[in-house]
Amino acid sequence: MANEGSDPPRLNGWERDVAEAADDMIGAGVAQLGEDREDVTVSIVPYQNRPLLPTTPKQKRRFWEQLDKLMDFAFREEPGVVRHDREDAEQGPLMDAACILCKGQCCLNGGPNNAFLEVEDIQRFRIRNPGATREDIKAAYEALMPEETSVMSCVFHGIYGCTLPREMRSQLCNSFVCRGQSVLAQGAAAGNKGAVLLAAPQNTAVASATFDTENGYRPVAAERDP
User: Fold this and answer.
1) Distance from C-alpha of 131 to C-alpha of 100, rounded to nearest angstrom
2) Which of 86, 126, 187, 208 could disulfide-link 25, Cβ–Cβ 3.0 to 4.6 Å?
3) How far is it, in rounded angstroms, from Cα 157 to Cα 104?
């Protein structure tokens, strides 16, 4: 049962509607976890399923142009000067489970925003890699750019999610927590032993998975049309 004195997560009206319509998926998830239903967190996460296509020359050119601009500013000062620092969010396996099922809805915004990188992110790279030149920085990002990316998404949004290690991602990417992840964190704080995640791009769950500390992320229901 949830810890005494802690508040279990509460779904809002839209989330409750999705959960009620997907009661069979939740039941299957609870059964997979082998827990009592009241000890399981139910979280609704976003979902995207855009196809993968070869990264276009235009996408690459836009990113390199933006990276060059960021480096122009970054190399005007020593890398130890970093402003607007933000601590990374807690990004344990539970938080990552939401991203796996979602397939990176928030990452789609990284396309027009060039992976959300800022000058401070380039400075952090320089701090971690003393003596790194502009060419070194570009080579590091180029080596991690996949040949195929989700359509109209971030140039680092590959088949298995972000191809950048956390230390090379923007602080925004590392600190952002979606509503579904917040619910998961609340459930864990309340002492829930597992979680059932529903992926709902609109008002209908199209896929589900479970998470517990013993077994990690496990799919439950295969993707279905909304």
Assistant:
1) 35
2) 208
3) 8
Residue appearing with tokens 């390199």: 64
pLDDT value at residue 12: 86
Dihedral of CA atoms 192, 97, 181, 41 in degrees, nearest 10, equals: -30
Check if the beta carbon of residue 55 is closer than 8 Å to that of residue 155: yes
CB 105 within 8 A of CB 154: no
Q: pTM for the complete prediction?
A: 0.84
DSSP string, 143-165: HT--SEEETTS-TTEETTEE-S-
CB atoms within 10 A of CB 25: 24
Closest CA to 220 of 93, 37, 42, 30: 30
pLDDT at 5: 47
Q: Which residues contact 6 (CB under 8 A, 6 or more apart)?
A: 189, 190, 191
The β-bridge partners of 150 are 52
Q: Find out whether 116 and 168 touch, Cβ atoms under 8 Å.
A: no
- Separation CA 24–CA 46 (nearest Å): 19
Q: Is 8 helix (H, G, I), strand (E, B) or coil?
A: coil
Q: Which residues pair with 207 in a beta bridge?
A: 199
- The one-letter amino acid code at 220 reads V
- Block means of pLDDT (10 residues each) for the chain, length 226 residues? 61 92 96 95 95 94 97 91 54 88 94 94 94 97 96 94 93 92 93 95 93 95 58
Residue 143, both tokens? 């080596």
From CA 66, how far away is CA 217, in angstroms rounded?
36
